[in-house]
Design goal:
Layout lengths: L7 H13 L28 H6 L4 E3 L4 H6 L1 H11 L3 E4 L7 H11 L2 E6 L2 H6 L1 H11 L3 E4 L11 H20 L3 E5 L13 H7 L6 E6 H6 L4 H7 L6 E4 L1 E2 L5 E2 L8 H6 L1 H4 L3 E4 L7 H18 L1
Helix pairs in contact: 4-5, 5-7, 8-9
Length: 303
Amino acid sequence: MSHHPLSNAAVDQQRRRLLKTCGAVCGSAAAFAYSGVAFSAASRPEQSSKAQAKSPAVGLQLYTVRELMEKSVADTLKLVAGVGYQQVEFAGYFNESAKSIRALLSAEGLTAPSAHISLEQLQNNLEKVIEDALIVGHQYLVLPYLLEDQRGRDIAAYQRLAADLNKFGERCKQAGLHMAYHNHAFEFEAVTGGIPYDTLLGETDPALVSMELDLYWTVKAGLDPVALFKKHPGRFALWHVKDMDTSGNFADVGKGVIDFKSIFANSATAGVKHQFVERDQTSNKVATISQGFQAVSGLLKAK
């Protein structure tokens, strides 16, 4: 069953709901069921801690399993670790405190190098965001998405955003963190005066702002990620590894048409440090994250 990307309005509504959960404190973990999907210890790819330490770490963007996170953060992290992931990227804490998140991660042997933080939070609550990030152990704060009413109609709006990202990045640097920006396809579409992504890359300070390149949305927009790496070497510290089917819709990583082999072969040029499996919509979350883990593990070992 294929899944078509949501309309802009539907995505905005979904993102608004999700971003409201970011940074919320002290909730209870509800009784949890994996949406009817059996996931036993016997079905897990077993890896010794020694083997995990030697292999490159594979990450998962937890937006992929957001419905499970809403039911229980603890049980979702247990599932993710059971698949074999060592790293996760948060898209909301789902009513858990930063201290609780840190404890849950530690219990499963996971780390969370990065978290998605809304523009509103960065503008209005940056000190609290940084405080929580340091508790959890994040290294990167990522602006994940601009809602329709936050997007500019001319390039001046993106020049202002670039200036804000530099400002956020300077404060992050003072705290020992890094700022990053995550793209969709709209940043590659021309507005009056230029291409937003060119401005965001060109007018942010590389010492303050990195890019989290979403490989699916970059290819969807008609660009070659490798060409971007070569034009802007070292800027792409984070990737979202997300695949595309022959119709241009989402696919499990390794089951679609994106040439990940070539992309991963150019990792050094990109400057990538963390790769997160993601799929925005999937009917079988366990199959999706298991396939993604196996595919990216293979790509990292083949580099």
